[in-house]
Design a protein that fits this description.
The chain has about 300 residues and is mostly helical. It contains 8 helices and 10 strands. The N and C termini lie far apart (about 130 Å). InterPro entries: TRIM45/56/19-like, Znf-RING_euk, Znf_B-box, Znf_RING, Znf_RING/FYVE/PHD, Znf_RING_CS.
C-alpha cells in the first residue's frame, strides 16, 4: 500500500518538475517523438519546426543540441514510449484528483462517468457496465477496483503501454522482439532474417540487450565515480598547493619588507653619522680659516 502511494506521489512530482513538459511548446507532451540525441518533443511541435528547416524531408535538427536525426518524415520518428506511458498515467492521476476532465466509461457509448476499472480488460467502467461485466461467467474472475481505491493510492493506475511490444515500421504486423547489437536497434523476425542475419549481425533478445546495457552503464558509472574521486583528490591537492604557494609568497614578501626596513634603518644611521662627520669637518675648516685671516685673535685669547 505504502509503495503504491509513493508511486502515485512520484508521478505527481514528475509533472510538477516539468519532466513531462515539451521544451518547445512548454505544455505536457502530446505524441512525444524521440530524436537520435535522445531529446523528445511533441509530434506537432516537430512538424512546425521542420517547416523552418532546410532538408527537413531527410533530417530534423534538434532545437536543443543541434544534432540532426535522419528521417523520411516526422511521423516516422520513433515514439518515446516511456514518455507516452508517464503522460497517460499523469493525465489519469490528474483526472482521479479532479484536476482534469471526468473519466468516462470505456465499455459503452453512453458517455457515463466511470466508477471502477477492470484490470484484466484494461477498461474504465460505469456502474451499469460493471454490473453487466460481473454477470458474465468469463469475466467473473476479473479484478475490478473502484476509482476511490485509485484516488487513495491503494491501487496505482498503470498504462497498458508498459506491456505493449512496439511494432516494426516495415513489417507492421511484426513485433520488435529482437535487438541487433551491430545496428544498435530493435528489429522484428522478418528484418532479422532479410537484412540483419544474412549480414552476419549479432542478434539477441531485448531482455539480454537491456541487461548488457545496464552492465555497461554500471561500468561507466563506476569509472565516472572513480574519475570523480580522482578529480576531487586532485582538486584538494591543487587547493593545498595553492594555499602553500600563497603562504610562501606572503612570507617572502614579509621577509623582503623586513630586510628593506633593516637596510633603510642602516642607511639612515650611516647618513646621520656621515652628516655629523661632515659637520665636524666643516666646523674645523671654518676655525682654521678664521685663524689664517686673524692670527692675533687667537693670541689675545
Amino acid at each position: 500500500m505504502a509503495s503504491n502511494a509513493s508511486d502515485s506521489q512520484s508521478l505527481g512530482k514528475n509533472v510538477k518538475t516539468g519532466q513531462l513538459t515539451c521544451p518547445l511548446c512548454t505544455n505536457q507532451f502530446k505524441e512525444p517523438k524521440i530524436l537520435d540525441c535522445l531529446h523528445s518533443f511533441c509530434l506537432e511541435c516537430l512538424q512546425k519546426l521542420s517547416l523552418n528547416q532546410e532538408d527537413s524531408t531527410t533530417a530534423i535538427k534538434c532545437p536543443t543540441c543541434g544534432r540532426k536525426t535522419s528521417t523520411t518524415g516526422i511521423e516516422d520518428l520513433c515514439a518515446n514510449l516511456s514518455l507516452c506511458v508517464l503522460v497517460e498515467e499523469a493525465q489519469i492521476q490528474e483526472q482521479l484528483q479532479g484536476q482534469g476532465s471526468e473519466i468516462k466509461c470505456q465499455s459503452c457509448d453512453e458517455d457515463n462517468p466511470a466508477t471502477c476499472r477492470c484490470m484484466d480488460c484494461g477498461h474504465f467502467l460505469c456502474r451499469e457496465c460493471q454490473t453487466a461485466h460481473q454477470r458474465m461467467t468469463v469475466m467473473k474472475s476479473h479484478k475490478i477496483y473502484t476509482l476511490a481505491q485509485f484516488k487513495s493510492g491503494e491501487v496505482v493506475y498503470k498504462s497498458e503501454l508498459r506491456d505493449r511490444t512496439p511494432k516494426c515500421k516495415v513489417h507492421t504486423e511484426q513485433d520488435l522482439n529482437l535487438y541487433c547489437n551491430t545496428c544498435e536497434r530493435l528489429v522484428c523476425q522478418a528484418c532479422s532474417a532479410l537484412e540483419h542475419g544474412s549480414q552476419g549481425h549479432a542478434l539477441t533478445s531485448p531482455a539480454e540487450a537491456v541487461k548488457k546495457c545496464k552492465q555497461d552503464v554500471a561500468e561507466l558509472l563506476a569509472k565516472a565515480e572513480k574519475t570523480k574521486t580522482a578529480l576531487s583528490e586532485a582538486r584538494k591537492e591543487t587547493i593545498k598547493s595553492q594555499e602553500e604557494l600563497d603562504s610562501n609568497f606572503d612570507e617572502i614578501r614579509r621577509r623582503i619588507s623586513q630586510k628593506a626596513d633593516e637596510e633603510i634603518a642602516r642607511v639612515r644611521q650611516q647618513e646621520h653619522r656621515l652628516k655629523e662627520e661632515a659637520e665636524r669637518i666643516y666646523n674645523d675648516a671654518i676655525f682654521l680659516t678664521s685663524l689664517k685671516f686673524n692670527p692675533h685673535k687667537n693670541q689675545r685669547h
